[in-house]
Design brief:
By secondary structure, this protein is of the alpha+beta class. It has four helices and five strands; from the N terminus they run ββαβββααα. Pfam families: Longin.
Length: 164
């Protein structure tokens, strides 16, 4: 995977970009910001394709994490990057100054962290892919377990209800 696979990232609160990083120039920054304005506020992951790039978003608890990647990279590495950034950002700023920070005020502090995470994901794609696969398997097992617990709960409550 080339150096240019992850090309731009930011963290925003609502529609206010708090920190961003890129070493490249192009219209991807304005496209990413335009998409940010239109994202649903619900916790979720979104990916949009445009001009050979993917615009990947992770929205959680009022914050949006974004990375623009070359389309050939796929989704796994950008989404893993977003999870890593969310974890790092939440550790540093959860319940703290991110809640009241103004636009771009965390660039100096968190911009270098975005760069670090981008570089790590570019330099270690096989590790990121393995980790993403393991997380997906854990989520799948967790889903099956939750279904089984619900079935047991229903059968137990039916055993005690006369008209079940």
């Amino acid at each position: 995977m080339g150096q240019q696979s992850l090309i731009y990232s930011f963290v925003a609160r609502g529609t206010v970009i708090l920190a961003e990083f890129t070493e490249f120039s192009g219209n991807f920054t304005s496209i990413a910001a335009q998409c940010l304005q239109k994202l649903p506020a619900t916790n979720n992951k979104f990916t949009y394709n445009c001009d050979g790039h993917t615009f990947n978003y992770l929205v959680e608890d009022g914050f949006t994490y974004c990375v623009v990647a070359v389309e050939a990279v796929g989704r796994q590495i950008p989404i893993a990057f977003l999870e890593r950034v969310k974890e790092d950002f939440t550790k540093r700023y959860g319940g703290g100054k991110a809640a009241t920070a103004v636009a771009n005020s965390l660039n100096k502090e968190f911009g270098p962290k975005l760069k670090e995470q981008m570089q790590y994901c570019v330099d270690h794609p096989e590790e990121i892919s393995k980790l993403a696969k393991v997380k997906a398997q854990v989520s799948e097992v967790k889903g099956v377990m939750m279904e089984n617990i619900e079935k047991v709960r229903l059968s137990v409550s039916c055993a005690f209800a006369p008209n079940c």
